[in-house]
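Working notes for the structural subgroup meeting. M.R. asked for a predicted model of this chain before we commit to crystallization trials. I am recording the input and output together here so anyone reviewing the notebook later can reproduce the run.

Input as submitted:
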Amino acid sequence: MLPMNDQSTKKPTTVSLADEEGVKQILTDTPLVFTGHMWQGLVDWAAEWMLRPGFELANAADMQIPQCVENVDQAIAIIQAAHARWEADGQLTPESTR
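Returned structure, recorded in token form:
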């Protein structure tokens, strides 16, 4: 089973914020959060089948991106922490949050 919320092994992810005028902002270290007990099984299954020797469909680091949590409070905490990092790193600008 993959560790839940193990930030030390997370691969950086990016999300582009765009509108009809084009890309406004790119955010790095974007969390992918699954909320509820049922998601850990899917993540474990994906890791097992996508990392099979000789049939690798993903990198092992990719399987560390999803974070499975039990409730919405845990999910919100992860998202708030990411938002705080984006603000501290100067990734959020007034234009990107409109």
